[in-house]
Amino acid sequence: MEKQRLIERILELKEKRKAIILAHNYQPPEIQDIADLRGDSLELSLKASKTDAEVIVFCGVYFMAETAKIVSPKKKVLLPVGSACCDMADMITPEDVLRLKEAYPDAPVVTYVNSTAEVKALSDICCTSANAVKVVGTFKEKQIIMLPDMNLARYTQRFYPDKKIIYFEGFCPFHHLLTPEEVLEAKKGHPQALFIAHPECRPEVIDLADRVASTSGMLRLAKELPNKEFIIGTEVGLLYPLSQQNPDKKFYHPAPEKMFCPSMKKITLENLLASLENLEFEVVVEEEIRIKAYNAVKRMLEIV
Ligand code: 13P
Ligand code: SF4
User: How far apart are CA 91 and CA 80, in angstroms?
Assistant: First the structure.
């Protein structure tokens, strides 16, 4: 089917199904263009929960669709490609969480939303890359467990020298791959540019950052700051919304081939159409787990 016809069919079926299409900031351009909402995973899930859509089609990875289901249990949530997974979320199992809880029984468990529903359900509270520092600051305990991203945990640790953050050694393979040498090379090539790093990057890269921000934080900073050039330390897909929203500014990437998350690029117009046609692939979360995971998300929302 030619592209224009595909788009028309998707829009027709979206109406028929009373569906809303969400696209994470890293999705391919044609998916971001057709989406009703674009953004980071949590903001998309929360916005979708406030609409009267009956079906949520989440163009992203599995944990994002699960998060949408956690906050919208009455809506049908679809992930157009069932195998679109997050390598970081899949690094940790519920047994790993239980082992850490047993080893540090008094430490609250703070879990990044980039995690499975089962792992969220075993946590005291969730956090995002944008609010992790604030969330950890609400605890009086001196020891805090942070899951599953060791880089986000080590970044948060910088703000609390009087606390000990115990972390699981998970990481996003694509953010973790960025090296300080690549950043220095990009800085050499673009000496005027401001370097913004995602907190999923390794500490040596964070040390070189002018700013550290989540994907939605990067979009906000690019708009608000007077700077005209930026080096972007996150998955390469973010360059599309950045350039689209700031046509007068320049965005450079220090390692575009390495910081490419294949799972994030699995969704196409064809499988998005098939998803709406066949109502596939539905994401379900067992109710007992959903309620516990929801409580961890809700607790975060109450304090941020
Ligand atoms: P945010 O969009 O929350 O910054 O997350 C980045 C990410 O890696 C999502 O997979
Ligand atoms: Fe997961 Fe990293 Fe891909 Fe984000 S970029 S979905 S954290 S593997």
Answer: 23
As separate numbers, helices (DSSP H) first and strands (DSSP E) second, the chain gives 15, 12
- 86 CB under 6 A from ligand 2? yes
Looking at residue 231, its pLDDT comes to 99
* CA-wise closest residue to 57 among 294, 284, 272: 272
Amino acid (one-letter) located at 136: V
Locate 29 and state its tokens. 């351009």
CA angle 192, 198, 204 (to 5 degrees): 80
Structural contact between residues 219 and 25, judged by C-beta atoms closer than 8 angstroms = yes
CA of 40 to the centre of ligand 1 (A): 6
State the distance from the centre of ligand 1 to the C-alpha of 129, rounded, in angstroms: 7
Q: Can you give the pLDDT at residue 304?
A: 86
Kindly state the tokens that stand for 284: 């379900």
Q: Which residues pair with 233 in a beta bridge?
A: 197
Would you give the DSSP letter of residue 236?
Answer: G
Residues of the chain falling short of pLDDT 70: none
What SS3 state is found at 269? helix
